[in-house]
Amino acid sequence: MLEQIKILKSEVEEQVSSINDLVGLENFRLEYLVKKGKIQNLFELMKQAPAQEKPIIGKELNVLRKFAESKYDEFKAQFEDNRKTQPSIDLTLPGRLSNIGSAHPVYQVMDDMLTIFTEMGFAVAEGPDVEDGLHNFDSLNFPPDHPARDMQDTFFVNVNNSNENSENSENFVLRTHTSPVQVRVMKGMKPPIRSVMPGRVYRNEAINARSLAEFHQIEGLYIDKNVSFAELKATMMTFAKKMYGENSKFRFRPSFFPFTEPSAEMDITCFLCGGKGCRVCKYSGWLEIAGCGMVHPNVLRSGGINPEEFSGYAFGFGIERVTLLKTGIDDIRLLYENDTRLLNQF
Ligand code: PHE
Asked: Residue range 203-208: average pLDDT?
């Protein structure tokens, strides 16, 4: 019997030295430490041993059992410790990519434009998209019979939801430009005023590669004593060169707006044909990017500013046009289809 214990002891010692993971440890337990295990088996056999030998056999067996149990506990503690310090995820695996959104190209361009203007000293202001006829037209010196008021250009808003011809339904419009914000800014502060006013505008126009019924503008307004047209031109040129690069070409053309006098439009060489003439520039080689002019005295008056004392200039850039120039997209409609294959590129 003592011989058997000795053999089992060396077997246990050998097994112990080959345990190197939790699976091996569990096999060890099943082999030696459970009720039907090899050590317990010898305790069963001990019952048949002569009475005087039982104490020695019992003692030896107990030593063996304690040894096996302590080894088992030792390994278990060690493996569990390892588990705690080893991360349960494999940090070397490639990560899962999630789709992160980004600002729409139109808003990226708007941000760039605003950054340039704020660096030049302009503050940013905003006004409502649903505007009253007073701000959108009257206070901007539109004569009562001006064609821009016509149903063909303007989306009228039927505020009280009643009969279309009621007075209220004609009093509100989706603003056709950001110029009404000029008047709101003038009413809200005293000169000197240096503001840029970004926002969405709406026109009841046929949709094609160059124009949409809904687009964005940045309005600019500068009011102080003795403001000159030369300052307007210099400001717009400085902005445009920062936006498009030193080598881009511009021209000013005389134009007409009821709210500025004199008025002009600023053109840039067509990005698509380089000035040769194409579908996008209507075969003129030039693209109109802004309207501008000296603020009409009547508009200063509607804003509560004395035209005898102050003068000012104003300009309005279309943002979509600029976005096309910047991105090289040649059809304005693509900007609103929101196809992620296009948007992902910016
Ligand atoms: N509001 C004009 C437009 O929408 C642009 C403009 C703004 C012109 C300011 C002159 C001064 O076309």
From this structure: 87
Decide whether any atom of ligand 1 lies within 6 Å of the 199 Cβ. no
Q: Which helix (H) or strand (E) holds 58?
A: helix 54-85
Cβ neighbours for 54, distance < 8 A, ≥ 6 positions apart? 46
What DSSP string describes 99-113? ------HHHHHHHHH
Q: State in Å: Cα 197 to ligand 1 middle.
A: 12
What does the DSSP 8-state code read for residue 18? T
Neighbours of 86 (CB within 10 A): 7
pLDDT tens for 119-133 read 999 999 999 999 998
- One-letter amino acid at 249 equals K
Mutate to test the pocket of ligand 1, among 233, 257, 267 (most ligand atoms within 8 A of CB): 257
Residues 6+ apart with CB under 8 A from 178: 127, 197, 198, 199, 201, 217, 218, 219, 316
Torsion of CA 282, 108, 137, 135, to 10 degrees: 180
182 pocket-lining for ligand 1 (C-beta < 6 Å): no
- Give residue-wise pLDDT tens across range 28-53: 999 999 999 999 998 898 888 888 88
**Cβ atoms of 252 and 337 closer than 8 Å:** no
98-113 tens-digit pLDDT: 878 889 999 999 999 9
How far is the centre of ligand 1, averaged over its atoms, from the C-alpha of 56 (Å)? 110
pTM: 0.70
Ligand 1 pocket member 314 (CB < 6 A): yes
d(CA 8, CA 337): 80
Q: Report CA(166)–ligand 1 centroid distance (Å).
A: 29
Q: Is 227 in the pocket of ligand 1 (CB under 6 A)?
A: no
